[in-house]
Amino acid sequence: MDRTYCLLLGCIFIAAIASQTDALRCYNCNNLDDNGCDDPFSSASELTGCVQCVKVKGTKSSLQVVARICAPERLPVNGCESKTEQGITGEACVCETDLCNSSVRVAASATLLMILSFYITVHLM
Q1: Signal sequence span per UniProt (predicted)?
Q2: Closest Cα to residue 38, out of 14, 67, 60, 63?
Q3: pTM across the whole model
């Protein structure tokens, strides 16, 4: 995946969240760059200094995206939510324990689903 898109996605993600600090370890990957990130999960790099761990999974047409993210600031949710918007079906999960974003289901918000929509749209262009 183009690093510019990753940077843009990261900026949007950070701009969409509220602040609070904690120090968790989270997996950080996406299945477009790392086959180990897909479900079933096998491996990924870890980041420390996270406040929450996030896992987003979505599909548009035949493209499936799985991303595991370290949230550097607190999101207003904890748990999972599924939603379909603009032809993208996805689930976003937020959790607050070390390496918790490895599981198939880990809470979400409309903000996370908006980010997932952007992420998949960018990769279809």
Answers
A1: 1-23
A2: 67
A3: 0.65
Q: Which residues contact 88 (CB under 8 A, 6 or more apart)?
A: 58, 59, 60, 113, 116, 117, 120, 121
pLDDT tens string 22-71? 489 999 999 999 989 998 888 889 999 999 999 999 998 888 999 999 99
Distance in angstroms (rounded) separating the CA atoms of residues 68 and 52: 11
Q: CB–CB of 88/75 below 8 Å?
A: no
Could you tell me the domains of the chain?
A: 3-124 (2.10.60.10)
Strand partners, 89: 59, 84
In 3-state terms, what secondary structure has residue 112?
helix
Count of Cβ atoms closer than 10 Å to residue 26 Cβ = 29
